[in-house]
Amino acid sequence: MADTKPMNVLGIETSCDETAAAVVQNGTKLLSNVVASQTEIHAQYGGVVPEVAARSHIEVMLPVVEQALAEAGVDWSGIDSIAVTHGPGLVGSLLIGTLTAETLAELKNKPLYPINHVQSHVYANFLIDTQPKFPLLALIVSGGHTQLVLFKDHGNYRLLGQTLDDAAGEAFDKVAKMLGLAYPGGPSIAAAALKGDDLAYPLPKPKLEGLNFSFSGLKTAVLRTAQQTAGKDYKLSSSELPKLLTEKQKHDLAASFQKTVVDILVNRTLEAYSQHQPTSVVIAGGVAANRLLRDELKKQLPAEISYAPINLCTDNAAMVASLGYFQAQIHQPVDYPDIKVAVNPVLSM
Ligand code: KG4
Ligand code: ZN
Fold first, then answer.
1. In sequence order, what DSSP letters do the residues of 112-131 get, joined into one string?
2. What pLDDT does 1 receive?
3. Which residues of the chain register pLDDT less than 50?
4. Rounded Cα gap, residues 259 and 245, in angstroms
5. Is 142 in the pocket of ligand 1 (CB under 6 A)?
6. Residue 87's beta-bridge partner residues?
7. CB of 215 sitting under 6 A from ligand 1
């Protein structure tokens, strides 16, 4: 008879500026999800400072793991394996998570699975009631990535297209900075856009072959438009430009930019859908928290599409634990007893 004992995976995630640990049962049932965010620390610098991020991870890593176990109501005997993000991300940040996971795996005698952060974002969608079915089309949109990926099954996937320059989240963050809106840019742009007119400033969309994306031209177009709107056609420092724009102009620019990014993302996803006819479509990564993107995809896609809650779209360890469970079904853990996980800041899908 098949072994039906539930399998609890402890996930650990430190690829950027969130220190996170979570316990997930059988890849789908969330038992706990703890995220210590450093957003406030980095907001004063307008972006993530890698050295500061690594130091903050060290300070809270073990308490976050302990809290994840306590909230799940399990002790170490109730943890079957550990999954940890080993890339892509900031090298100093990744090292804190992997060193912690290696040490705990050795001390507590647990198998350890290294996890690809970008792929793990897709697994936030396995933690909700209506789980996606294969073949599955994933639009992965985060601060570092913009990709369309077709999954035939767990561990069996193909990259269909990706950004050729900036990631969608990166464009949100950079445009927010131009407009003097708070870091992280995505939520600030979305909030400003609610008060703006998305037709106020026509912005260009890239004409690309295939299923690739590009956002750097759009970002430059917003800068030029903002400079012209401010009555200046020369280069202004990032602190000068926002002071020359009215609140209404900022709201209109934010709305026009957001609408253009969403149009680009939806258009490519529709194209990928019609080419590959997947059973499910999911959207993953921090930008998947964007309300307009969710609404437009739901409206325009001729498929059932369900979304993970916003706290599972941005960086967390529950998605890492979920992918860890499915990896454990098809892969061997890291060699024992010399448990070493190689971090890879530029790990691709
Ligand atoms: O996945 P994530 O938490 O971290 C990375 O792996 O990059 O994504 C962070 C990105 C940031 O660029 C942030 O501005 C963006 O997700 N983001 C949003 C929203 N919430 C977060 N972008 C657009 N709309 C949002 N509501
Ligand atoms: Zn992420």
1. EEEEEHHHHHHGGGGSSSS-
2. 47
3. 1
4. 20
5. yes
6. 116
7. no
Q: Which one of the ligands is nearest to 146 CA?
A: 1
Q: Which of 214, 212, 215, 216 lies closest to 161 in space, CA to CA? A: 212
Question: Which DSSP string do the residues of 71-112 spell out, in sequence order?
Answer: HHT--GGG--EEEEEEESS-HHHHHHHHHHHHHHHHHHT--E
Enter the pTM of the model. 0.93
C-alpha torsion angle, residues 146, 147, 153, 156 (rounded to 10)? -110
Ligand 1, pocket-test mutation among 287, 316, 319, most atoms within 8 A of CB: 287
List beta partners, residue 18: 37
Whether the CB of 290 sits within 6 Å of ligand 1: yes
Q: How far apart are CA 179 and CA 266, in angstroms?
A: 25
With a 6 A CB cut-off, is 88 part of the ligand 1 pocket?
A: no
Q: Detail the DSSP E strand segments found in the chain.
A: 8-13, 18-25, 29-37, 81-87, 112-116, 136-141, 146-153, 156-162, 280-284
CA distance 168 to 262: 9
For tokens 């209506």, name the residue: 130
